[in-house]
Amino acid sequence: MHKITRIIVFTIVLLTFKTQAQQSVAREWNEQLLEAIRNDFARPTVHARNLFHTSLAMYDAWAVFDPQAETIFLGKNFGGYSCAFNGIATPSDVESARHEVISYAMFRLLSHRFQNSPGSVETLAAFNNHFTSYGYDDTLTSTDYSSGSYAALGNYLASEIIAFGNQDGAHEESGYNNLYYSPQNPPLVLELYEDNTAIDPSRWQPLAFDVFVDQSGNVYPLNTPDFVSPEWGEVVPFSLTSDELEVLNNGFDSYIYHNPSPPPTIQNSNEDGFDDPYKWYFSLVASWSSHLDPNDATMIDISPNGVGNVNFNDFPQTFEEYRSFYDYMEGGDPGTGHSINPYTNMPYTPQMVKRGDYARVLAEFWADGPDSETPPGHWFTIMNYVSDHPLIEKRFNGQGPILSNLEWDIKCYLTLGGAMHDCAVTTWGVKGYYDYIRPISAIRYMAGKGQSSNAALPNYDPHGLPLVPGRIELIESGDPLAGSGDENVGQIKIFAWKGPDFIADPDTDVAHVDWILGTHWWPYQRPTFVTPPFAGYVSGHSTFSRAGAEVLTLLTGDAYFPGGMGTFEAPQNEFLVFEEGPSESLTLQWATYRDASDQCSLSRIWGGIHPPIDDIRGRIIGEEIGVEAYNLALSYFNGTLSTDEFAQIDDIISIYPIPFENEFTVKHHLNEPLKMELYSIDGKIVKSDTILTNNQKVTITSLQKGIYFVRLSNSQNEIVSIKKVIKQ
Questions:
Q1: Structural domains of the chain ordered from first start
Q2: What angle do CA 342, 345, 351 make, to 5 degrees?
Q3: Is there a contact between 231 and 181 (Cβ–Cβ < 8 Å)?
Q4: Which residues of 694-713 are buried (b: 16+ CB within 10 A; e: fewer)?
Q5: CB of 254 closer than 8 Å to CB of 277
Q6: Residue 89, exposed/middle/buried by CB under 10 A (0-12, 13-18, 19+)?
């Protein structure tokens, strides 16, 4: 009942918008893909790749008939794979030809990619029904487009992408299997609450289940799921470049882009457990677990007036900055909210809700995204939500003419798909190499060791949890947890969500928060899922979401959702899946795309999935990837640069210093003047200049600190580079 309700809830808003305009063929096939993902195994890497490859197919099917745009795959060498293409006659009806090529390409590619899905019967039938509803012939399988057949061109494009996918490093033909990785820790049998103190507390630990059910509701064929995609760094990316790549070895060669540096390992603390970054990060996850109770009277304002508006410059770098950024006891970040909605010029209306409802809804909404499209697919649903909004103007980067629905969707999907794919390649390369532990293992490990705050108190161990009054304490005689024979006296107790043992019927029961044995701590997740089957560092949710936010900001030319706010309704006692709730209806609200991204990041801490160190470094990587993917996509849309040429020009144009105060220098070696335009994050030009010489300084006064974009164009008004700069 809950799952059906959740799909309907999110779709109501979209359906309201959809009735206002006919959807493009690209949008219709994207919706087919998103539904197929919901019925497949929850594999973020695999589906980020599916989203990118299908977006690439649709883009080339569109671009081949555009006089300006440049194809990426047809007739090109992409990622070491050469796709021959001899051209095709210009159609008298371009719109009809594009529709046909896109439909044949998507039908063939999607049918291939989902043939082994657990929902294949339903999914393949849906693909066929959708394809034939256009009047196309599913028996036409020729790839010989030399006669001018647009159906054959679609088939050919799909067959070439399928062939490319069989050698791009994903190991698709053998079921996306791992070749080299093996876990260093034995599985944790969750329900036995066994001693977990013999593990390596820096390495990922598999989880063992009676039955494992993934995020999409599929029963997994193994009761101890393997690490998903630890070697994914080898997969051919979209915009990632060789100068961002390191090949490191931690038992096997790992391909790592945007290396975030190692996460902290546990220290042999000498009565300073709370000052050990490892202990602080993971114990914060346990502390925030205390917020997951609807009986908690704490009320917070979750409107854009009360949350959001975190500046990129505020992201912590040092341990002390982390301790200032995250509120250990009360939850949340230093975001001050937005005083005014820029579209209405009115203050945002406060929305006071129970923190216990907000944290639970947040954890579940972003976990499934919103119903198991996996995180990269979730950002496609947000993109579609934005595209359907009646206030959106489909001007690329907020400028120029209004685009057709098809051109808008094609360009948005390629940019977003490329970014999501690059996030998967980067994040899972990092995960596979650093192989970092998850909170479920780290917290149970430290709780089993004891406490690390005071050697004069019972159960002291340098690897124990820090004692925090009201959150992490020692069990004393007479405590309800002491046991009938005081067998638990001196053990660690945590004030936290009580876990699935206290939920018999998820439609009526709530586990609530209370003191529990530290070795019995659970993330706020379903007992058949608990934690994703791969290492934590860095957070995929944080990386995907920050990249998605950057892409949407750049595509729309506006940091804000249309109308100044995006929303999601969580009805009373109808939204939560594995326990009853929320106790009152609430609406998730985001002023900007970055606010949504930051909220997603916090949700993974409240959900017990990631500590702060996983989060911030993922956000930073995601921001870099989002801008890179946009820049490369833009070069294809403008048709001015091939991939190699773009890389060469981008390499010989640099801007420094970053961050800057009142001036920066543009360095270039192009033999012509460049037009420089400085854009604010909401797409407004704040300065224009002509760069006549190499090492020319640009002076800027009275500019607020924040993120800006420098766009450089040549004398033909062709964009040659877009670079992000930061005003401090």
A1: 1-639 (1.10.606.20), 653-727 (2.60.40.10)
A2: 85
A3: yes
A4: eebebebeeeeebbbbbbbb
A5: no
A6: exposed
By the 10 Å C-beta count (0-12 exposed, 13-18 middle, 19+ buried), 485 is classed as exposed
Q: Is 75 left (phi over 0), alpha (psi -120 to 50) or beta?
A: left
Count the Cβ atoms, other than its own, within 10 Å of residue 182.
Answer: 10
- Is residue 669 helix, strand or coil? coil
pLDDT along the chain (728 residues), means of 10: 37 42 92 96 95 98 95 95 94 97 98 96 98 98 97 98 98 97 94 93 93 62 86 98 95 97 94 92 98 98 97 93 98 96 97 98 80 88 97 95 97 98 98 98 98 96 97 98 97 97 96 98 89 96 98 96 97 95 98 98 98 98 96 89 45 73 81 83 75 80 76 79 75
| Residue whose structure tokens are 């033999």 | 671
Strands 207-208 and 188-189: parallel
Greatest Cα pair distance, the chain, in angstroms, is 87
pTM of the model: 0.87
Under DSSP, the state recorded for 262 is P
Give me 239's structure tokens.
Answer: 């915009």
Q: Which residues contact 348 (CB under 8 A, 6 or more apart)?
A: 303, 304, 305, 337, 338, 339, 340, 341, 564, 565, 589, 591
Residues 239, 630: Cα–Cα separation, whole Å: 9
List Cβ neighbours of 292 (8 Å cut-off, separation of 6 or more). 356, 359, 360, 363, 496, 497, 513, 524, 606
Rounded (10°) CA dihedral 399, 402, 407, 410: 50
Rounded to the nearest 10 degrees, what angle do helices 44-63 and 405-434 cross at?
Answer: 150
Q: Are 212 and 222 in contact (CB under 8 A)?
A: yes
Letter for the amino acid at 413? Answer: Y
| Beta bridge pairs of residue 354 | 299
Secondary structure element (H or E) that encloses residue 586, with its range: strand 586-590
To which residue do tokens 């950024």 refer? 325
Residue 67 to residue 69: CA distance in whole angstroms: 6
